Amino acid sequence: MLAAHYNTVVIGAGPAGLMAAIEAYNPKHSIILLEKMRKPALKLRISGKGRCNITNEEGLQSFLNRFGKKGRFLKYSFSQFFNHDLLNYLHKMDVPTKLERGGRYFPQSDRATDIVDAFVNKLDQLRIPLITEAHVTALSKAENGQFVIQVRHSGKPIEVTADQVCITSGGLSYPATGSTGEGYLMAQAFGHTITDTAPSLVPVLTAGDTAQRIQGVSLRNVTVSVWSENKKVTELFGEMMFTRKGVTGPIILTLSETLVSMLDASREVQIKIDLKPALDHKKLDQRLLREISEHSKQSFKNMLKSLLPRKMIDLFIDILGVDPHKHLHQITGEERKQLRLLLKAFPMQVIGHDSYDHAIVTSGGVSLKEINPTTMESKLTPNLYFAGEVMDVNGETGGYNLTSSWSTAWLAGREMRNKQWGELGHGKE
Predict the structure, then answer these.
(1) Closest by alpha carbon to 288, among 261, 322, 254?
(2) Closest by alpha carbon to 427, among 376, 359, 364?
(3) Confidence grade of residue 425 (pLDDT, cut at 50, 70, 90)
(4) 282 closest CA partner among 214, 360, 356, 340
(5) Burial environment of residue 101 by CB neighbours within 10 A (0 to 12, 13 to 18, 19 or more)
(6) Among 163, 190, 343, 365, which has the highest number of CB atoms less than 10 A from its own CB?
(7) Maximum C-alpha span of the chain
(8) Considering just the CA atoms, what is the radius of gyration of the chain in Å?
(9) Contact indicator for 166, 416 with CB cutoff of 8 Å
(10) H-assigned helices in 24-82
(11) Count of alpha carbons within 13 angstroms of residue 208, beta-carbon side
(12) What tens digit of pLDDT does each residue of 201-211 get?
């Protein structure tokens, strides 16, 4: 049952909310964590295909670079609570972790639910109530300085007051898990600016049936470049995959923020996939000549088996218009050239992107200019804090965004606890 007043209320029991509530703990003061869904951390439970990519091994500066210009905002929180602090934190809660390719950390069990359970158990140990099906419908401030929180709990309206509030309700991605942007409305009620939001780390859609024909093909060690008006905008090396409607995978998800913004600006967008980035045009041509010379009586289709994933062979044959049974010694210089160009710049027209339903994070949110990066407290309203994805801070895929959520929440929780204790300082003890 909800009480009438709490010292600290945390709104949203995702990774940031769970961390903020625990770190705000003060045995002499009352804390409560409100979650509108039936279970906490639904999005965390499905992250990393249910495995949860906790964090990344990268050093601080490289890590910050993954957030672009927004990385500057995270510098202080990361200096206080970073990747190995997080791993130690989880180990103390009996969640062993393991390091995998790309510097990515996962729970040893490969179960994201183990992380959720560990945080919920910690709440229970500290006797911090986690109230589910508690939907915050409005947030305001009374003349006495206390926050007034309108909550609909199990269908009944309840009013709660608080000395401090931390909004950790997430962005707009995966709305089925509870991220529906209500934190933005709460922030706006206190004069905060919400920067334009858009799906980020989201699969993109491509024209024609190319993607559908090679659906399920995964490519490793390729370079994808983004083009508009015959000019290269950016490029990235790594892994990608073809879906029924387009492309996805780590490098596509990372490039998606750029692609979405270009599409929103009504720009024509194309990606080009370099299937052989380790070879420049001259070296690739030499390889093709060598294949033709050494296997002159083999068919063109047979040569493609050494160059491409199986499902891409027929697609290349159709695009190039070369007889698949043609002997290699019959291949013309022009046909060899067209093959080389296609291997180095396989084009796909980008025509759209998936919705928030399939976006890993949200680009945009509460303006960072209005939040103190050393406390996570609002610069506009004392005792109002933010942490996690509700803020306008999003990075690349690979464990970076979860680290940001936990780090900013750790800092916000410590600040709320210190303020309740009447301490002046902040940061690590």
Answers:
(1) 322
(2) 376
(3) very low
(4) 340
(5) exposed
(6) 365
(7) 89
(8) 25
(9) yes
(10) 42-46, 60-65, 71-80
(11) 12
(12) 889 999 999 99
Please name the residue that has the structure tokens 């999003």.
Answer: 394
Portion of the chain with pLDDT greater than 90, in percent: 86
CA distance 104 to 86: 13
The predicted-structure confidence for 78-111, as pLDDT tens digits, reads as follows: 999 999 999 999 999 999 999 999 899 999 999 9
Which CATH entry fits the domain spanning 5-198+362-421: 3.50.50.60, 3.40.50.450, 3.40.50.261, 3.40.50.11270?
3.50.50.60
Closest CA to 165 of 194, 199, 136: 136
Contact between 197 and 181 under an 8 Å Cβ cutoff? The reply is yes
Q: Which amino acid is at 413?
A: G
**Cα dihedral 64, 68, 74, 75 in deg (nearest 10):** 50
CA distances from 369 to 52, 109, 372 (A): 30, 39, 8
Give yes or no for a contact between 271 and 350, defined as CB atoms under 8 angstroms apart: yes
Query: What are the Cα distances from residue 115, in Å, to 53, 91, 111, 132?
Result: 11, 10, 8, 18
Report whether 107 contacts 54 (CB < 8 A). yes
* Contact by Cβ (8 Å): 32, 9: yes
Which residue, chain included where needed, has tokens 């809660």?
93
DSSP class of residue 385 equals E
- Distance between CA atoms of residues 255 and 141, nearest Å: 41
State the CB neighbour count (10 A cutoff) for residue 142. 9
pTM of the model: 0.82
In sequence order, the 6+-apart residues with CB closer than 8 A to the CB of 251 are: 222, 224, 236, 237, 238, 239, 240
Q: Which residues pair with 153 in a beta bridge?
A: 134, 156
3-class SS letters over 224-262:
EEEEECCEEEEEEEEEEEECCCEEECHHHHHHHHHHHHH
Question: CA-CA distance, 136 to 178, in Å (whole number)?
Answer: 12
Of 389, 44, 11, 373, the residue nearest 200 (C-alpha)? 389
Given a contact cutoff of 8 angstroms between Cβ atoms, the answer to whether 11 and 34 are in contact is yes
Does an H or E element contain 218, and which? Answer: strand 218-228
Residue-wise pLDDT for 122-160, tens only, equals 999 999 999 999 999 999 999 999 999 999 998 899 999
- Please provide the size of the chain in residues: 429
